Amino acid sequence: MTRKQRLVAAGAGAAIVVLLAGFLLTTGGGHDSATAGSSSSAGSSSAAVTAATGASAPSTAASAGPTSTAPGRNPNDPPPSLPAVALDHPAAVGNGITARIVSTEAIQGSATGPGNTNGPALRFTVRITNGTTRPVSLDGVAVNLAYGSRATPASPLDDPSQMPFHGIVAPGKSADGVYVFSIAVKDRASVTLTVGYRAGAPILVFTGPAR
Question: What architecture is the 85-208 domain classified under in CATH?
Fold first, then answer.
């Protein structure tokens, strides 16, 4: 082989070495990039899975908590009033409890407590009948009187004859309560007596003239 041929062969060999090195470097970098990309994707997937099923998910659900959506009356609202009936008619709550005014009497009230004043008054005897199958407490009965078109409240009078409801009324039995209210004779053309047999129960309404 001539000197010229040896130089050409050496140059070709050097070129092959350079090309091979470049190829190795290129493929190595691509492998690293692919590995990094794979790691990044795996990290993102792991983060997504953690976000969907990790510890934070139950915490969010617990903080939301179940909410009550059952319809019903707001306990802060006053109980509803049933349609009014005449003073001499019975009224029914709708659950077996009924009430009626046994008597309405015009009296000269006697004051026995602080803040009470002697004077004209009305005395009502109210009867509550327990038509349910269970005993009913009457300790929470509320009886009130109003008069006139503006439903002005009449003042309860602590008269010796009053006997508010108390105790228990058995199934099928009745109990009477006596209530006295100060009210001028001129204000008796239209009066309204309301009876609530327990807190939250619908209010029974009796209305009409009282002489």
Answer: Sandwich (2.60)
